[in-house]
Structures are given as structure tokens and as C-alpha cells.
Amino acid sequence: MIYLDNNATTIMYEEVFQILQKYSTEIYSNPNSIHEFGVKADVAMEEARFKIAKIMGVMPYEIYFTSGATESINWAIKGTALSRKKIGKHILSSKVEHSATINTLSYLNNIGFDIEYVKTDDFGKVDIEDLESKIRNDTILVTFMFANNEIGTINPIKEIQEIIKRKNEKTLFHVDAVQAVGKVDFRLKDYKCDMASFSAHKFHGPKGIGFLYKKESTLIHPLITGGTQERGQRGGTQNVPSIAAMAKALELSIKELYEMDRIKTIRDELAKDLEDLGANIVTPLNNSTPNTISAFFEGLRGDVIVNALSDEDIYISTSAACSSKGTSGSRVLKELGYSNKAAEGMVRISLSSLTTGDEVQRFINILKNVLEFLRF
Ligand code: PLP
After folding, report:
1. Is the pTM of this model over 0.85?
2. Average pLDDT in the 13-42 region?
């Protein structure tokens, strides 16, 4: 098998799996139980929180465990809306965000919030001047992704942060940092946003676990009410096995970051090979996550290429995994002004630190045959 769909999800590191197993079958207690067995799970959970906070350069009490980035994003956006609706109802974002953001904003729009979208360039990068002109006194939140999951474009998060705070220091800034970890050296201490969302399965951790970073001074309503877990901000028994495993995955994926120079070289060569096969490259190679390349082939459907490759045990994708089933092409490409045909033709190849040059070479050789067959 050649797996080149790492923006959708990644293989779990073996060491991470060992931890998942340990806290599922050995130390499986509820971290909120007061007995000694419960305390063991609580200690593991708090050690994980401490490790994540240390890597990110923030305080442990600013890390809240969630079921993944979709929940974190929902919490950041809806929590801000609920807690600040008396101050304002204006929220800014972009149209190329992940559906976790887009559909949460559309829900808020339906219940009376004023959602406005900032212009982007042809690659989906936020237009700073347009952002500056759109921030108002009643803007309660700005939310942007660090890197686009479909085409890899990176946003100028530091610049965005400075502009927001200069124009309205009360406006909160949330970053969807899901596609950053393991690909670029993303540490929260370097990006002074108010909130940020993360998902472990994108960096070789388990699925269904993530965290929300929420600055100590950022007070928003909880999304999930229940018990007093997570300092009363997120009810529900914490998923200790996955939390402990996520902290390990984060540590390992940061250690493996040096591999990204190699991956970028492979990705850039792959871009040339794809162009030789007639692809139109969509990803901006000089401003993108180093593992991602998206392209379309004139006259061919992306899903047909994906299925033909999958018959050869090679896995790439058309667009975002969560929206590629049953939809017609890349929403991001359509938002960027590409034709429906181009959007339907898009394929995304996403590598990981574990991808080898040999795998990519074999992929290109087989893709060549597949394209010849499909064009015949
Ligand atoms: N944001 C981005 C940029 C993503 O790529 C994803 C997953 O594809 C998410 C949010 C949602 O993450 P999850 O499905 O783990 O909740």
C-alpha cells in the first residue's frame, strides 16, 4: 500500500498505540474517581496536559481536552457568540475554511449573527487589507485556519493577529491549527491568538481526540455542559487513553519535524512530475504546508483518478475527506473562482514524515499508467 492522504488522517505511531493500550487495559480508571486507581489516570491526564502546554509554550490550564477539532472549533465559535452577543454579533472568517467552521458560522447566521467573509488571494490566503477594513467595533470574533487542508496555503497568522488587536483589542482571534502540527513548527507561544483548535489524528495520534487552547483571559461559554470536568468548561469523562496518546504523538511529531525539509523536496519534485503528466498545480509551492500538493487534470474527474489508484492500493483524495463523499468537487477551488470542471478534477496528495521517496516514485509511475488508460 502507498498511503498519500495524510491531510485526511495519519497512521498512529507504534509508541502512541502502546500508550493507548496501556490506559485502556491497565490504567483504565475514571480520572475523576477519588480512589487511588482513579488518581493514577488523573495523574496521566495532567501529565499529558503539562506536556502539551510545555511543547506549545503556554500554561497547562489553558489546554482543554475535546473530542477533536470539530468540537474545539464549535466551542470557540459558538462559545464566543453566546458569551459576547450583547457586545456584538459580527464575526469575520473566510470562505475557504474547513466545513467545521463554515457550517458553524452558517448556523450562527441563521440565528441572527452577522457573518462576513474576508477576501482571499487566488490561493486562499487572507487579504490583510480587506480584513483591516472589515473589523468593526462590534466584531466579536475573527476565525481563520493556519493552513488550508485542501490545497495547503498558509495564512499570515502573526500579521492577522497584529491587525485585529490594533483595530479592536476586544475582538477574539481563533486559529484552526489542525493542518499545522507535524508539518510546520507551530507553537502557540509564537502566535498570540486567543484560541486555537487541534486534532490528534492529523499528527499520528488517535482519532476522536483533540484540544482547544484558550488563553487564561479568554472567557467564553462552555459548549458541552455536564460534570465539572475540564475545570467546569467541558462536561464528560475525559478520554484518558487518547489524551495520553495524543501528548506522545505531539512530542514525536515535533521531533520528526526535521523530516519536512526532505518531504518538501520530494513534494516539489512531485509537482514537476505531475506537470509533466499534464496537471495544473493549485498549491502555491512557496507558501504552503510542505507535505501537500493539489492539482487537476483537464478533462478528467478527480474521483475517477482516486478510484483507479485505489485499485492499485494507492490512496490519495479528491478534497477534504469529510466532504468528498457525494459532493461534486472541491468547495475550496470553487470559492477561489476555478470552474466546476477544475473543482471536480481536483486531487490532493498529502505526504507525511514517514513517506519515502521510493513510494512517491512508484506512485508517479502508476499514475502515469492510470492517466494513459483514462485518457484513451
Ligand atoms: N479543520 C481542518 C483544517 C481540518 O483539516 C479538519 C479535518 O479534516 C478539521 C478542522 C476537523 O478535524 P476533526 O475531523 O478531527 O474534528
Report:
1. yes
2. 98
